[in-house]
Specification:
The protein is mainly alpha-helical. Helix content is 73%, strand content 0%. α1 packs antiparallel against α2 and α4 runs parallel beside α6.
C-alpha cells in the first residue's frame, strides 16, 4: 500500500505523462484536414483537460482562492459541458453542436471563474452563509452535466453496434 510521502513523488511524473498524452491527442485532432463535431469537441476537451491538469496541481491548489486561478478553475468546470457534448456526439450520429451549447460552456466557465475569484474569497473574508451555499451549488453544477452525459448515452443504447456502425 502506498503511503502519503510517496504520493508527491508519483504526482509529478503521472501528471506530466497525462499532460503529454492530452497534448498529443490534441495535436493529432488539430491536424485532421476535415473534422466532424466529434473531433472538434474532442479537441476542445483535450485542451481543457490540459488546463485542468495544471489547475489541479497541488502547488496551485494549495494557494488561496484568487483571481489568477479563476480562469483555470472556470475552464476546468467547463470541461463537464464539453464531456456531455462529446458523449452526445459519440452516441448520436445526428448531433450537431449549436450556439446554445457554446453558451452553456461559456456560462459554466464564467460560473466557475466567478466562484473561485469572487464568491470563495468573499466567504473566507466573512460573507453571509448564503455565499457558501451558492459557492457549493456552483461547484456541484458539473454533476448535472454528468447526469446529462449518462442520459445521452442511455438514450441511444439501442443504436449501438448496429450494422451501419460496425
Amino acid at each position: 500500500m502506498l503511503t502519503t510521502p510517496c504520493l508527491p513523488l508519483l504526482d509529478a511524473p503521472l501528471r506530466g505523462a497525462m499532460f503529454a498524452c492530452l497534448g498529443l491527442l490534441a495535436s493529432n485532432l488539430a491536424r485532421l484536414p476535415q473534422r466532424r463535431p466529434l473531433e472538434n469537441i474532442g479537441l476542445a476537451l483535450a485542451l481543457g483537460l490540459c488546463v485542468q491538469v495544471l489547475a489541479a496541481w497541488p502547488p496551485v491548489e494549495a494557494t488561496p482562492p484568487s483571481g489568477w486561478r479563476a480562469p483555470l478553475v472556470g475552464v476546468s468546470m467547463g470541461n463537464s459541458v464539453l464531456f456531455w457534448l462529446w458523449v452526445r456526439s459519440l452516441c448520436d450520429d445526428d448531433f450537431r453542436p449549436t450556439r446554445r451549447h457554446a453558451a452553456a460552456w461559456a456560462a459554466m466557465v464564467a460560473a466557475g471563474a466567478l466562484n473561485i475569484g469572487w464568491l470563495l474569497p468573499w466567504h473566507l473574508a466573512g460573507a453571509p452563509g448564503w455565499v457558501w451555499t451558492l459557492s457549493e451549488i456552483v461547484f456541484a453544477l458539473p454533476l448535472l452535466f454528468a447526469v446529462l452525459a449518462i442520459a445521452a448515452a442511455l438514450s441511444h443504447w439501442r443504436d449501438d453496434l448496429v450494422e451501419r456502425r460496425r
